[in-house]
Specification:
Blueprint: H1 3-6, E1 11-12, E2 24-34, E3 40-44, E4 50-54, E5 66-73, E6 79-87, H2 96-108
Parallel strand pairs: 1-2, 4-6
Antiparallel strand pairs: 2-3, 2-5, 3-4, 5-6
Length: 121
């Protein structure tokens, strides 16, 4: 999955997962729960909708608060994570609802906010 870093990654919310199957994405959400295996966790987006995230290896740290995940959307509609970043809320205040509104604008006006770079010959 090294190609995930080499291509544009649209920022999405849980409602958009089915539109991006097999494609790299960036997802930001609030941690809701971590499976006992440590290899799966659930994030909720700015609308409170859940998204499941799968890891190749179990977590080696405690997660909480806001988490950004970069990965591929699987056929099951889960995000297979390549990397994740935890935003500690004591260091910054992150308004997930406002972020979600920004995502809607990005996706409603793709002519102004293109996700893919077009090569001009």
């Amino acid at each position: 999955m090294t190609g995930v870093y080499e291509s544009p990654k649209p920022r999405i919310n849980a409602s958009m997962l089915s539109q991006y199957i097999g494609r790299p994405v960036c997802f930001v959400g609030r941690l809701e729960k971590v499976h006992s295996s440590g290899s799966v966790f659930t994030l909720s987006d700015g609308e409170g909708k859940p998204a499941s995230v799968e890891l190749d290896e179990p977590l080696d740290e405690m997660l909480s608060g806001i988490v950004e995940v970069i990965g591929m959307v699987s056929n099951k509609g889960t995000i297979v994570a390549v990397s994740y970043t935890q935003y500690r809320e004591e260091n910054c205040s992150f308004d997930l609802e406002l972020y979600n509104e920004g995502l809607k604008v990005l996706h409603d006006y793709p002519q102004y906010y293109p996700f893919e770079v077009s090569s001009k010959s």
